[in-house]
């Protein structure tokens, strides 16, 4: 759902889109936290550092690549490529978190690479500007998401999921706002169309509010490798939703590439 909201509101530009979605998600989680927990925070310094490092990779660097990708290609093409990050997460988890990795990774990797190749060569859909650049941004975002998850998993050792989702946002958001203000003026972000705030805000609440919390819980319960692998259902759902809400055209290349990518991830599981 979040990707569809982002696609509709992406006209404001990549960095403003990241700022708006992150701000609304943070406010939503803060209000929810105050209601349910009464504002009682409990976390370690190391937990705070790793969660904000994960937030920097996911919200700022990964978020900018995410929005740039959506500016140039369709949701149906972008999301399947983005969700190759479970493979990267599995590899990083094995190297840095000592999580077990199986021989199926080789076969799954091959299918994922084939899927990305098909998706990058498929015929352009309505509204697609630069397929090669959009695909490149999707791959970059996938790498950044993988690093973010490993850092976040480390931070979750000391902080519960609810606090983690909230704690990982303020510092990266402030850094990005300072950067954007230095180049465009402090008040520029407040002068956009109301529609952009609504669409990007709803996307932030759905994807980074509810989505982050549920995902952080799964990281604790079943580990980084399985949690990210199970997220492979997202491309299929995104394509279906985009088909009806954004009127995107689904061709054989998109179907074949998406199926290959999802199959590769499920084999790795």
Structure, explained:
With 269 residues, the chain is mostly helical. It has one domain. Helix 2 crosses helix 10. The longest helix has 37 residues.
Beta-strand percentage? Answer: under 5%
Net shape: globular
Per DSSP, the total helix count is 12
Poorly predicted spans: none
- The SSE string, one letter per element, is HHHHHHHHHHHH
Task: Estimate nothing, just give the exact number of structural domains.
Answer: 1
Mean pLDDT: 82
Radius of gyration: 18 Å
**Largest sheet descriptor:** none
Number of strands: 0
Helix content: over 70%
Instruction: Calculate the terminal CA-CA distance, rounded to whole Å.
Output: 24 Å
Structural class call reads mainly alpha
Give the oligomeric state.
single chain
Topology:
Elements (H helix, E strand, L loop, with lengths): L1 H8 L4 H24 L7 H28 L2 H8 L2 H12 L7 H18 L9 H25 L5 H7 L2 H15 L9 H37 L2 H13 L6 H17 L1
Which tags fit this structure?
79% helix; single chain; 12 helices; 269 residues; mainly alpha; 0% strand
Provide a concise account of the structure shown.
Helix content is 79%, strand content 0%.
